[in-house]
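Protocol step 4 of 5: obtain the predicted structure for the target chain.
Materials: sequence only (see below). No template structures provided, no constraints applied. The aim of this step is simply to have a reference model before the mutagenesis design in step 5. Sequence pasted as it appears in the construct record:
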Amino acid sequence: ITAAVDAWARGAVALPKPWQPQKPVLPVEGRRNVLITSALPYVNNVPHLGNIIGCVLSADTFARYCRLRNWNTLYVCGTDEYGTATETKAVEEGLTPQEICNKYNAIHADIYRWFDISFDYFGRTTTPYQTTIAQDIFQRLLTRGFLQQDTVEQLRCEDCQRFLADRFVEGTCPFCSYEEARGDQCDKCGKLINAVELKNPQCKLCRGIPVVKPTQHLFLDLPKLEERLEAWLEQSWATGDWTANACYITRSWIRDGLKPRCITRDLKWGTPVPLDGFRDKVFYVWFDAPIGYLSITANYTDQWERWWKNPQQ
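Step 4 output (structure tokens):
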């Protein structure tokens, strides 16, 4: 309180001069460097107040606070554009997935400009950098033995001549009997679902009845990482600022044992898988989208690794 009274008495003239970072904003030796990202908004809808309040506005408030503290601050965000939700929206509107992305990226950018959100850069995930970085991470995982191949029973629509990704399937939830469950999750009971577990499944595109057929996919071998991850989590829980809810959910995953997780999908719209035998598939958006934070920064500056691979600063 005494310090606050003293600062107030001395007035604005005694304040340090505002920090003017170089353009592009890069880490600076000897300064506090802060990288801020908002959760990437999905591109198949018009953002509403809940979207903005949920992540964009809070990050913007923090970015403004950091700049007032004269910290060297970079705030990036962008639209998440790959995946089945984009394909379904494209079918609904009679456009291509790229046209849908172009349309809604522009809408998102205009709305955030209207709210004066102080992004240093607002990008998107459908860029060459996204492909380059995602495929590079994939190749590193492959080289280090963290990927495995397995056969998956998947629903195929013979009328549409395609395997159906989870969001192209609707049916009755096997847990709570909700009749409009998706092929990945039930919106009523919240449980995760494999599409083949749905009762009375239907193809969302033609309303035909799909059949179960085998197909090959690639999996991230999470059990190999479990021991190292658990040790890291214990340290992070002790020293970090995790919420009680985040700790509880993460502990439940570790307690139940990690399972291999599929990272490929039988879709056309996505980052291509650069491996023989899988070149007709794309990366599952859960694997691909988090890499968007890196690729959006890379589109802002070709020195993006100074932000993402530079813990000393």
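Step 4 remarks: Residues 179 and 296 are 39 Å apart (CA to CA). The mean pLDDT is 92.
Proceed to step 5.
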